[in-house]
Amino acid sequence: MFANTKLLFLTTLLTLASTIAAVPVTANLESREPGTPPPRPTMPNTSQVCGKWHVVQPNDENACAKALASTNISLDAFRKMNPSVDANCSNLWGNYAYCVAEPGQYFELFPPRR
């Protein structure tokens, strides 16, 4: 009987593990609505239809790296949504919002408490 219980437990565990492994890390628990207004001003021509915003802190020498890392976005994709950003990503303005994900492409697994 113990062997059957152990086998059932292991089968259940493996089924659960394979189910969890099949769910992307960016599971759909919370998403900003497309077109959510930016929380701060934006540079000219910044997309106003955005899945997630990143606000740059003033005088942050790593502002571009932090913005890109916030959703693991490429510089090319970032510049497409924020066309006023230069090719070196060296002209970000503090206290301004930048789009870091297109609508429907970013979901927070553990959203911040409001």
**Main sheet record:** 2 strands, antiparallel
What's the arrangement of strands in the largest beta sheet? 1-2
Mean pLDDT figure? 77
Overall shape: it is: elongated
Q: Provide the gyration radius in Å.
A: 20 Å
Structural class: alpha+beta
Residue share in helix: 25-40%
Helix and strand element order = HEHHE
Count up the helices: 3
Taking the alpha carbons of the first and last residues, their distance comes to 50 Å
- Low-confidence parts: 21-32
Give the total of beta strands. Answer: 2
Beta-strand content estimate? 5-15%
List keywords for this structure.
3 helices; 114 residues; alpha+beta; two-stranded antiparallel sheet
What is the compact description of this entry?
The protein has 114 residues and is α+β, with helices and mostly antiparallel strands. It has helices at 2-22, 63-69, 75-81; strands spanning 52-55, 97-101. Mean pLDDT is 77; it is low at 21-32.
Describe this structure in words.
- This protein is an alpha+beta fold and 114 residues long.
- It is built from three helices and two strands.
- 18% of the residues are buried.
Secondary structure layout plus pairing:
Elements: H1 2-22, E1 52-55, H2 63-69, H3 75-81, E2 97-101
Antiparallel strand pairs: 1-2
